[in-house]
Amino acid sequence: MKKLLILILCLSMYATAFSQIFSGIDEVYPFQGDFAAIKKADKWAFIDKEGNKTIDFRADFVLTNRLNSLYKTISYPVFNDGRCLIRKLIGDTYYYGFINEKGVEVIKPQFLNATNFSNGYAIVVLSSKDSIGFNYVLKKAIVSNIMEEYVIDTSGELVKYLYNPRKNVPANYKKGIPIIESKFMAPKLVAVKTKNKKWEIHQF
Predict the structure, then answer these.
(1) Which domain holds residue 173?
(2) Cβ neighbours of residue 187 closer than 8 Å, sequence gap 6 or more
(3) Looking at the domain assignment, is residue 23 inside a domain?
């Protein structure tokens, strides 16, 4: 009887030592830095290298396309420079923002599109209005909706205007996510596509 109790105790300790941390996970993805994304149904969470869940399952993450070892495209949320892209539906439009590694929203969703951070900066698309006249019959201002690209830092501050506005955009813009036409070339060097489809290179 004593041997049986010892055996049960040993098996119990063994099971505890190799206990499951999570179950029912649909997808697991490689670590990017200190965090890895896991998927359950249509929601995502992040774990650290000790298996601790650092951000609980949520459905607002923006997925990033990466190539795996077989050169197949896979999509999952990632952290870059301590920031991860999220999106929020406001009215009938999705706006993009960022959370930190604790899951706290540090840059509120306000952009029509945004890249992941790279070397401390991201490129975003902002919507604004430009007054182009006044309708005296209707007694109201005539405005043009503009989409403009900017570089932001990890606090959400606008660092650089990218000189490629798209004007006369419909107020109910529903053509999908506007394409970001600028791209980083180096930590503080960005290429901007102009209206004549040529490129300008700017330092910031």
Answers:
(1) 110-204
(2) 119, 120, 121
(3) no
